[in-house]
Amino acid sequence: MFLLLISCFSVILLSKSLSSKTQQRIHCKWRLFPPLFQKFKLGIFSFLQAIPLKKMKLGSSESPKEDHSTTSLSLLDLPELTLESILDRLSPAGLCAMAGVCSELRDRCTSDHFWEKHMKQKWCKVIGAAADREWQWHIASKMRQKNLLDPNNQQSFLGSFTKICPFLSRFSFKSRTENGENQLRKSDLPVDSTMARYLSLETGEFWFPAQVYNRENGHAGFMLSCYDAKLSYDSKTDTFQARYSPHRRRTAEENISWDRLRVPPVGTCSYDLHISNSLLDLKPGDHVEIQWRKTKEFPYGWWYGVVGHMESCDGNENHCRCLYTDTMMLEFKQYPSSSRWRKTAVNRNDHREVGNEAYGFYGGIRKLYKEEEISMWKRLWPNHVLE
């Protein structure tokens, strides 16, 4: 009987111990997962409070010291797909913060896999083929600089990024030798990586080509036009500054909003005549953009207009033959009917630059097929008729 009582008492103590440990594990799990399902609203650092991270020294050959007295789950101990899912949900600032934790997370968080998504989400509406070519030229010019492989030059190239990613100054350029001495590393963040490109845009270091609607703060002389410019982003105001390069002087503009920018729709240089391929199909009511410049020394801008009826046509659709004439009429209805800028005639069959110093020079024409493009011009329509 005495032995039976001792056995029962041992079982009771053991069950309480197991129950206590099980509750602790469940509690830890509940601390771990809620931040993930709240889309990191509490921030990555609240998540780190729930999951202790491994302490890893960059470049050190020493293995991290583990405290065997307590058992804790490390972020790097999570299954691969779980960790990938966590990192995939981080913002650019979150990736930068996470990359400063240890060398393994730095390698993961700086990979193109995560940054390509952020590039597409934020920059796809203003970054086109011209900006891609400019970026390649930007990289090549950096690579051609004297002593680029000198760590000091690498630090100079990426120095401006430390405002957004402090880990670059703390981790990217320093490691330890076997003797424990610090030494500089050269290529933790390649200059041609997607992360480097994103940060170059975000910090405003990279000036990229795009087009600006209604340049110079909606100056009446540029209303309903779109001009090429070099642009730099200001993250503090979430706006852009532009540099235009007309003849004889350089013009700058600040505080340009996102909705006034677009990717160049064609690859024609702003000083070259665009070769039109839709002139024979244009009919009254079609929406177009036409190149125009003040003098032959100036670059072209794209101006919005519509195809109108010839003067000999009464506008009746049943009798209109404007589609079959050699000459078509373009109208710019932002100007009054009495303005010299209201209409211009264009030859369909032998179209080339036409004009003079008084009226300017008209170049190539592109037909607008997308409702999105047409709607954009209508949103920019002036509140009053231009003189």
Q: How far do the termini sit from each other?
A: 112 Å
Binned strand content: 15-25%
Give, in order, the helices and strands: HHHHHHHHHHEEHEHEEEEEEEEEEH
| Radius of gyration computed on alpha carbons | 32 Å
Say what oligomer this is. Answer: single chain
How much is the average pLDDT?
77
Number of strands: 13
**Major β-sheet profile:** 11 strands, antiparallel
Structure described in brief:
Residues 72-118 form the F-box domain. Among the domains are: 122-202, no CATH class; 208-262; 279-379, no CATH class.
What does it look like?
- This protein is an alpha+beta fold and 387 residues long.
- Among the domains are: 122-202, no CATH class; 208-262; 279-379, no CATH class.
- The chain is built from 13 helices and 13 strands.
- It has helices at residues 2-32, 34-37, 44-50, 80-88, 92-99, 103-109, 112-123, 129-144, 151-158, 167-172, 194-202, 215-218, 371-379, and strands at 174-176, 182-184, 208-213, 225-234, 239-244, 251-256, 261-262, 287-293, 301-308, 327-331, 343-347, 354-356, 360-367.
- The strands form two sheets. Strands 3, 4, 5, 6, 7, 8, 9, 10, 11, 12 and 13 form an eleven-stranded antiparallel β-sheet that branches. Strands 1-2 form a two-stranded antiparallel ribbon.
- Helix 5 runs antiparallel to helix 6.
- The protein starts with a helix and ends in an 8-residue tail after the last helix.
- Mean pLDDT is 77; it is low at 1-64, 153-159 and 169-187.
